[in-house]
Amino acid sequence: MTAEQIIFYIATGFILVSALMVVTTRNLIHAALWLVATLFGVAVVYATLDASFLAVVQVVVYIGAIAIMFVFAVMLTKRNLLDHVPQTNANWPWAAGIAALVGAGLLYTASQLTTFGAQRPALSGDSLMNLGKALVSPDAFVLPFEAASILLLAALVGAVYLVNKR
Amino acid sequence: MNFWTDPIHVIYQGLMQTFTGWGMAADVAGIIINLLGIVLMITAIMVLDIFLVWIERKVVARFQDRLGPNRVGPWGIFQPFPDIIKLVLKEDITPAGADKWVFNLAPILSLASVIFLWAVVPLASRIYGVDLNVALLYLVASGSIGTLSIIMAGWSSNNKYALVGAYRMVANMVSYEVPLAASLLIPTILSGSMSLTNIVNQQAHGVWFFLVSPLGALLFLVAAIAELGRSPFDLNEGESEIVAGFHIEYTGMKFGLFYAGELLHAFTFGGFVAALFFGGWHGPWAEAYPLLGAFYFIAKAMFGYWLIMWIKYTVPRIRIDHMLAFNWKFLTPLAFALLIVTALAHRFLMDFPAWVYVPGMFLSNVLVAWATLEILRGNARRERLAAEAH
Fold this sequence. Notes:
heterodimer; A: 166 residues; mainly alpha; 6 helices; extended; B: mainly alpha; 2 strands; 70% helix; globular
């Protein structure tokens, strides 16, 4: 087992456990913190795949945003942030069955791929430079990139319109 | 290759020979040596941090026309040790209503978010942790972990003052992240890279980015001070309003971790000012002798730290609405305007020789500053006329 595999197994185990904790813990703040742990684990996986930009952006965007979510969670919920209602309803066996089926299907599909279990090919060139060029290149992702920026601009204008009294 | 031209490599080779001589596999030895390097680096930073306590107290004393600590050792230089012994011996209290795990995790994360930064800081030409190609984004990322640690501390203390203090601090840090990120993009444009090593190497020929973008350096300094939560942006504290803010419930060494993190954070941002705008480790003979380069870097970082202290102990605290208005209505638009001007001017001037490029870029910054002042003056005049018309 290589060092990379060891890191991968530790990181994925960490992601799964903390993701489970997000949905099972009753304390909303603890759920938010376990979500931070989950997203951090995802960032570790990105880093092992040579996607350093995505790994760091994962931390900036998601963990930075969780701090804000934290603030809203504290402001908008009851005092002790504990819910005493049952966490599941009568349909949970169906949901678990469908989830298990989808998971098994995904695993089966992945195992049928010819590249399953193969060594990851080494990246050529500066991946950050390639990503930057792809985002503004007409043959690649310039259209989705610009569409996303128009969406964000619309959100910004909407926010200003909502709070403007005049 | 000898010790004076490439110290890290020589030490690495020496340890490698020793470990493999003991019958250890080469890759295991490599991991152990890297771990040793990390531990050594963190220890060195923490020892430096101890002396930062003394420096901070001595400098504030001079600014306030006092002597400062002067009893323990020559010039009071051993004063931090009694301070630390006091902090360690104090009772370690976790409030009964506190959320224990989150409460104890917060100070660790707070200090860790600062120590993370030293992984990417190039101390000298061949002395650095890692040459990360997204180092500047990494700076912002560890800042968001710092924000998280503060809200964790504020919430888990189960204290209204702590929560209000944490809210203020988060409002401060989140909003000043925008001009901080925009001003980090200026050295990125000038050097064409987000790697700190590359940014420092681009300033090799005496053209420090401070000369090319003085306004960018100033913006970075202001945004960095706000990110640190130091005066004039120290809204997290306020004896008459919220007492000590988010760390009100922390005692002993847990408070010590916050305190050490704050001092080290200020010094680290001094180091970033040095690396981004003042040529990093560059200086006479620094290329050939990396240890000299490390000395230059620490000296420049100390200068940046001194600037931050100078501002802290000179300028009074500003009001919270002024703080937010200053960020969103002044600093952020200015940072983006400067970013656009810098990008255009750099593209037009990049093919010219240095004696055209540097004055040209400098002039573009002066123009932006002048235009800003004119707009501010116009606004002030309009407000005054409106007030007089009433």
